[in-house]
Amino acid sequence: MPSRKFADGEVVMGRWPGSVLYYEVQVTSYDDVAHLYTVKYKDGTELALKESDIRSQSSFKHRKSQSSSSSPSRRSSSRSRSRSPGRPAKGRRRSASQSREHKEDKKKTIQETSLALPVLVLFKPSENNTKRYNGEPESTEKNATSCIILEQKLKPDLEIKRVLEQYSLRSRKDDKKKEEIYSEKKTFVAVKPIEKVSTKTKEMEFGGRIGTFTLIFFLPATVFYLLLMCKQDDPSLLNLPPLPALESLWDWRVFGVVLLWFFLQAAFYLLPIGKVVEGLPLSSGRRLQYRINGFYAFILTAAAVGVLLYFEFELHYLYDHLMQFAVSAAAFSLALSIYLYVRSLKAPEEELAPGGNSGYFIYDFFTGHELNPRIGSFDLKYFCELRPGLIGWVVINLAMLLAEMKIHNLSVPSLSMILVNSFQLLYVVDALWNEEAVLTTMDITHDGFGFMLAFGDLVWVPFVYSLQAFYLVGHPTTITWPVAAAITVLNCIGYYIFRSANSQKNNFRRNPADPKLANLKFIPTATGKGLLVTGWWGFVRHPNYLGDIIMALAWSLPCGFNHILPYFYVIYFICLLVHREARDEHHCKQKYGLAWERYCQRVPYRIFPYIY
């Protein structure tokens, strides 16, 4: 068994994982089994490093002394001894001596600059906060930073050599040799920065190629199955619905309405209203701009729907042709996904999604190959994330409410339908009012825009999330006022947890020094961010998911307990959030390193307290 080289408590220089930068660290412990040193940085971050990534401080000092030993002053003295026998006059010699002193001061200044500049560049904090490995300043700026470091190192050397060679009397032959050597050195140094770190996706999710291929067919089939089940008198799981005729699934007029809806929302998105904000830094360090006007789009859509109702447009037409609308939306999302993949083949490497660049067609097509596909300033992924599907969900719910009143000859909607519409309307309005928060979600910062998000935003959200309202049209459920009050309280509890947890997190990210947040405790990380260990985030690791699940249950309870079909949403949502939580855990482990492990020890429960 190899003996350890560094003792506990020893101060050494540790290489930052994934980079060529060394920082001063202190050895805290050593793992004899894994042969890893646990080191502590000055900011309190602890990382596990291999012995090959650690060097003694003396080795760095030795390099510095070598560079100083070959100072310009020593080289200038050797040149003075090699002067020609024809000595100048004494006074001129004195002048030359003064000139040499001036040149030595100049060269000394240049040399000091050459020693100082790389240090300043090496330890310049990164401003990129989107992707960090074990607390390291983001790898997205790694290539650019290495180029700057080497250029700063090379530039002072050029200046020193230019000053020295200007007054040198060495032979041209020696100069040519030196130029050749320096040219080789320059070529070697110049090649290194342009080497790019591979951005290929190494860990495939969703079952890899086979899993994503299956999901491309399974997701649309699930949507169609649920809609067909809701139309049956007995929507039991074992009572499979008959397959409809293929010609009944398609209507060009319905497809035209779907296109009209999409482009109407796109027109609202392009309106010059609302503020413009910057997203998180990309791999190139650039920040994209986004216009925050989703709530205004919702108001304009509500006004347009109100005009249609004023002119007695039959909105329950959506209920009668809901399956055709779902098929049309699925066809449009498929066409959009094909366009997105084809255009992504010409996208630069730095614009590809970190999770959708595997090199396999099916996997990249499903997860999304390009991170932020844009047509000019029109961001396709950001637009689809909240606008057509989320606002469409509310319109479909309203259509179900009107259909229930017409089919059952009601003067007012049923109490169950009112609760479902009200709860889900609150959720959508909250999302649009806090639209800016979506810029920090995994969908925007990590996932590409492919079939998964296109189908999810345009089909799954409006047609599956409105399942409870669709179910109540054909299966009316009567509930008492006390039951309705209890369900309302449950939804309010879920909403309070969801909103207060997200607000707590967003406020802390914007301004951790806010006096209002002085009572919050956090674990510092090398990324510059803190991991909250008090408030909702000290209760469970994902309190916003807990609030989401409680609200999902409140949306299903007004449908009663006769069938499990209206509870599909809450069951699916639990599975979705558990899977997303696992993805979050994986990314946070890579991003925060040992700081995340300490956070997990402090907050052991993930979503459900004392359960999971």
From TrEMBL:
Residue spans of biased composition, Basic residues class: 76-95
Alphabetized UniProt keyword annotations: Cholesterol biosynthesis, Cholesterol metabolism, Cytoplasm, DNA-binding, Endoplasmic reticulum, Lipid biosynthesis, Lipid metabolism, Membrane, Nucleus, Oxidoreductase, Phosphoprotein, Receptor, Steroid biosynthesis, Steroid metabolism, Sterol biosynthesis, Sterol metabolism, Transmembrane, Transmembrane helix
Reaction catalysed by this enzyme: 4,4-dimethyl-5alpha-cholesta-8,24-dien-3beta-ol + NADP(+) = 4,4-dimethyl-5alpha-cholesta-8,14,24-trien-3beta-ol + NADPH + H(+); 5alpha-cholest-8,14-dien-3beta-ol + NADPH + H(+) = 5alpha-cholest-8-en-3beta-ol + NADP(+); 4,4-dimethyl-8,14-cholestadien-3beta-ol + NADPH + H(+) = 4,4-dimethyl-5alpha-cholest-8-en-3beta-ol + NADP(+)
Region: Disordered, residue numbers: 53-110
Protein's name in the database: Delta(14)-sterol reductase LBR
Ranges for domain Tudor: 4-62
Ranges that cross the membrane: 210-229, 249-271, 292-311, 323-342, 453-473, 479-498, 519-540, 560-579
Compartments, record wording: Cytoplasm; Endoplasmic reticulum membrane; Nucleus inner membrane
A Pfam family matched in the record: LBR_tudor
EC class name: oxidoreductase
Gene Ontology CC annotation, any one: endoplasmic reticulum membrane
Keyword DNA-binding in annotation: yes
Gene (name only): Lbr
Pathway it works in: Steroid biosynthesis; cholesterol biosynthesis
SMART domains for the chain: TUDOR
Biased composition (Low complexity): 66-75
